Amino acid sequence: MEWMALGTLEEIPARGGRYVETPLGEIAVLRNENDEVFAVSNQCPHRGGPLSEGFVSGKLVFCPLHNWQIDLEKGEAVAPDSGCVKRFPIRMEGGQIWLGLQEITP
Amino acid sequence: MHITVPRKPRLVVVGNGMAGIRAVEELLKMAPDLYEISVFGAEPHPNYNRILLTPVLAGEMTLEETILNPLEWYAEHGIQLFTGNPVTRIDRVKRQVITADGKATPYDRLLLATGAAAAMAPVPGNHLPGVLSYRDMADVEALTKSSALGGQAVVIGGGLLGLEVAHGLRARGMGVTVIHRRAWPLDKQLDQRGGVLLQKAMEARGVRFLLGKETAEILGTTHVTGLRFSDGTEIPADVLVMTIGIKPRIELAQAAGLQCETGILVNDTLQTYDPRIYAVGECVQHRGQTYGLVAPLFEQAKVAANHLAEYGRMRYQGSVTSTKLKVTGIELFSAGNFTGGEDCEEVTLLDGSQGVYKKVILQENRVVGGLLYGDTSIGPWLFQLMRDGTDVSAFRDNIVFGETHLGDAGHSGENQAARLPDNAEICGCNGVAKGSIVKAIREQGLFTLDDVRKCTKASASCGSCTGLVEQLLSSTLGGFYDSTPKKKALCGCTELSHQEVRDAIVKEKLLSVRQVFAYLEWRHPAGCATCRPAVNYYVRTAWPMEGLDDPQSRFINERAHANIQKDGTYSVIPRIYGGVTSPAELKRIAEVAERHHVPMVKFTGGQRLDLLGVKKEDLPKIWAELDMPSGHAYGKALRTVKSCVGSEFCRFGVQDSTRLAIELEKNLERMWAPHKVKLAASGCPRNCAESTIKDVGIIGVDSGWEIYVGGNGGMKVRAADLLCKVKTHEEVLEMAKAFLQMYREDAQYLERTAPWVERIGLEKIKATIVDDANTRKTLAERMDFALSQEKDPWKEAVSGRLDIHAAPIRRIPA
Description:
The complex is a heterodimer.
Chain A: E1 3-8, E2 16-22, E3 25-31, E4 37-41, E5 55-57, E6 60-62, E7 69-71, E8 76-77, E9 87-88, E10 90-93, E11 96-100
Chain B: E1 10-14, H1 18-30, E2 36-41, H2 53-57, H3 71-76, E3 80-83, E4 87-91, E5 96-99, E6 104-106, E7 109-112, E8 116-118, E9 131-132, H4 137-148, E10 152-156, H5 160-171, E11 175-180, H6 192-204, E12 207-211, E13 215-219, E14 226-229, E15 234-236, E16 239-242, E17 246-248, H7 251-255, E18 264-266, E19 277-279, E20 284-286, H8 294-308, E21 322-324, E22 332-336, E23 345-351, E24 356-363, E25 366-373, H9 379-388, E26 425-427, E27 432-433, H10 434-443, H11 449-456, H12 466-477, H13 498-507, H14 513-519, H15 531-542, H16 556-560, E28 563-564, E29 570-572, H17 583-595, E30 600-603, E31 609-614, H18 619-626, E32 638-643, H19 657-668, E33 677-682, E34 696-701, E35 704-709, E36 721-726, H20 729-746, H21 753-760, H22 762-770, H23 773-788, H24 793-798, E37 810-811
Parallel strand pairs in B: 1-2, 1-7, 2-3, 7-19, 9-16, 10-11, 10-16, 11-12, 18-20, 32-33, 33-34
Antiparallel strand pairs in B: 4-5, 5-6, 8-17, 13-14, 14-15, 21-22, 22-25, 23-24, 24-25, 26-27, 28-29, 29-31, 30-31, 34-35, 35-36
Helix pairs in contact in B: 1-8, 10-12, 13-15, 19-20, 20-23
């Protein structure tokens, strides 16, 4: 697994997100109100909306295009919608955010 | 040594029906681990959907299909369920309930949801075998068995339930006679005219009526054989169903010394005389009222659960209800006061040949009741008007024709949801067909608009099909559906309404979204996509200077200051005041578009230029090179002021509309609002700028300007109302500012001026800003102050004072 430094927590707005360009495509890095950080592919399973621009609340991100809700821990859309996003590992160390460049497989 | 193990408080629920279990469900949502819960039910089944008795009787559904909470649900939530073992006594001193088998179960809190029983006419023979009621599954089973033998059924009581059971038994092949004391059936829901129409329609289906008859005795020795009336006449009967009304089951509460009248008396928190004992459902009497429809019971369940969960905040203030008869092919709707009376007026429509009768009762231009027979399509709308207390003076003469005749061009002809085929698309945004909505309502036990939205997504996006979905709920659930709850919560994160949240922001001086969520104890600390933008707007409007604008509570468009497109690119629309530009400006725009290879350049509907397909990263560069203010074409904000040529060039123009449009746009730019706001100024009554479908539209006339408000050309066309006529540009500006500031302070977030004007009434707006010069001036000043706090976002971004996070946080090369 390859770990890449992303920057500090402060660079990601709380309850929102940023994205990172990688060889695996764009990955959304999202931070919730408790400073937990999640990384998922930056494409809503519905119409490809950029999840990095969505509202983040708890374990959910709301897609900015049509308001689908994606569960960031499961990597799945919340019912009645269905679809998956790829999840990527995040490690926090000394105020740095590290992104693992390998999809988490269930 | 003593070790005390802390134990959970015990909640005992008496009654395993829809009200009691709904309360438990609401409680589990709020405080899943607070109580050890036991539920006692007299019936042998888990909680089933009582609304579906008639489909089961008619053989369209089975009991299993009506189960709302299977046994596994109780197990999953650690609830002890005791069925077929009714509670016979409450010992309030020892705080325990005693069941039929003599066992005692202690409680810390007790919830009574004992429901209601059928009232039986006090006549000799009323306990004979073959005399049945119609309240639960056991009744349905008995009726099904009896009807298999054929013969004559007599239904005593021509109310809603009586007619439904008559219809069901007739469908099963029995001869059916309905006996009713009054001169027409359904006299609690219908006036005589409607009653006669209904009677004829039921008779055409083979149901006989004997009206104005008093039952004196039920005949038979080992089984019912017939009945005798007070006038001495007799009719034969093989089965007799008593549907003369329901009686709250209060015996248990009464024996325990709790205060009861018709029902168990409760206060606004659903608490009985004993503070440890709550009660909900049909057994309850609240402010003198008892209820038998599902929606009020659910409202009660929610409030009781809130207090059991120790939140202690909600109050139940009674429900307004409407009823609908569920007999295939007969449409009937009634609500409120449908008989009228002193200081009431009636608007009626009667078409005897088509069997259509509509009656709306008005009091001081508000709907207070109504009756629809034969065509109930306007029912949900009428009910909404009634509950919101909408001023209907503008369309009262046409009210019986419904909303379609008020400019609802987008959805006309679709009002008969019940008559649409199953594959008809109801929700155009999410592609949901009628069949799947009806299926979900039946199979998943849905009762409210919110349930349907959550389960099917229908009506969850633009909301224009809400009326249709409500009609489907009402036609599928019949008399039990009570459309939307009285008070609409802002979203699922709180119980509070838009107005209550707004009031708290002003009163408690809450200066940020976070403060609001914390102070008002939001269920999710970071809110959701519905409440965050709304609350942020309310904070900014209440406190334009001190209030914190939270970018993470803005929709993406308002955060990026550009309009996101389907492929994730953005569009850039610079401000061009009044639509008047210059060759130099056009050249600059053209050069920027060429330099950045902008894929499309297009004129917008509002007479502006749109550069489409721009990557987010390029936005600040393009803004810098354009060197023009933001057009706010992406925001819930002032969009554009459209204009026609006007008197400067046009040979018909009587006023300088372009100059006025520019002045309006310069005075109102950067105005955030509950929704987008579009203006127009026309230089003569030919109205080429289409001012009559704008939020604020100005039309020049020889003597000055006419000001129109509340127009809309979008989803639902609405012609604007004439607000007033003024002479000068200054007066136009002040009036427009006052109107828009009133809108900003009063309308709900995402409510456009058209529905807002309809909701509060043009008269109120006129009284506030046309008749009252002082208020007009203060409102306009408040608008000026709010706008003075706003800066041009593009300039802020270009100068580095605003970060729109245009670039990715990192680029990781391959």
